[in-house]
Amino acid sequence: MHHRRNRVMSLTIAAIRIAVLAGCNDDEPAADSSSPTTEHAPTTEVPTTSSPATTAPPETTTTPATVAQTTAATPPPPTTPPTIAPDDWEAILEELSRRRVALYAAPDLTRIGEYCAPGSDCAMELETQLSDAIAKGQHIEGQHPFDVTSIEQALVGEPSPVGPVASVIFVIAPETPPPARLVDAAGNVIDELSLASTPTRGAFTLASWKSDPSLPWRVVLAEDLGPVP
Predict the structure, then answer these.
(1) Distance between the two ends of the chain, CA-based, in angstroms?
(2) pLDDT band for position 52 (50/70/90)?
């Protein structure tokens, strides 16, 4: 689903050209301290006085213990979804866009509810598109979430059976190359999506989704209102 079409959710992937879519211890053996002491034969020329052997105390070489310099690799922090305020419309829209892009990159019908409100036009159309993509072994590579540059309108209406409904009109930045690609299971490029070279205005109808504090809204309907004059 590509946000520049006349409706973001309206076309199928079947026609994606026009859709928006680490050994053993090898230490050397220690010198044998029990080796026999060599007895010196007495000499007639110079009597040898056996002085007691000076037993040198063991050397206390303070070789610093080798502290493992291999600091344990610090595991990355757990990936936790961001908690977005219900009225942070720019963050809400951009997270929704990231989720939509993820669905087209790896089509999965069980994850539609991460983006669309159940039973909505969004859910039905996305199910059709993803089903077609799965059947054909296709997905989209190289697509980027959109960047919201401004919120022109955000209205929260009367509660619906699932909670409040909001209508948000916003402007997104032009896309940057390279374009996204429709590819098959073997990685062959089937088509390329065109890029929007100018700012575009979009409109989302959203339904409140309190069961997901990481993203408190789901899409009911997404539309492209065209380039900004």
Answers:
(1) 23
(2) very low
Q: Mind listing the domains of the chain with CATH numbers?
A: 13-21+82-227 (3.10.450)
87 within 8 A of 154, measured Cβ to Cβ: yes
- Which residue is associated with the tokens 């063991």? 58
The residues with which 155 forms a beta bridge, in sequence order, are: 167
The answer to whether the beta carbons of residues 172 and 146 sit under 8 Å apart is: yes
Six-digit token string for 63: 């070789």
When mean pLDDT is compared across 158-172, 182-196, 211-225, the lowest value belongs to 158-172
- Residue 58 corresponds to which amino acid? P
Mean pLDDT across the stretch 152-175?
88
H-only helix segments in the chain: 89-105, 121-136
- Residue 85 tokens read as 């305020």
Half-sphere exposure of 221 (CA within 13 A, CB side): 12
- Residue of 76, 104, 117, 106 lying closest to 215 (CA atoms): 117
Distance CA 59, CA 41 (A): 31
- Going by C-alpha positions, the residue among 203, 94, 224 that lies closest to residue 152 is 203
Q: Angle 121-136/89-105 helices, nearest 10 degrees? A: 30
Phi/psi of residue 150, nearest 5 degrees: -160, 155
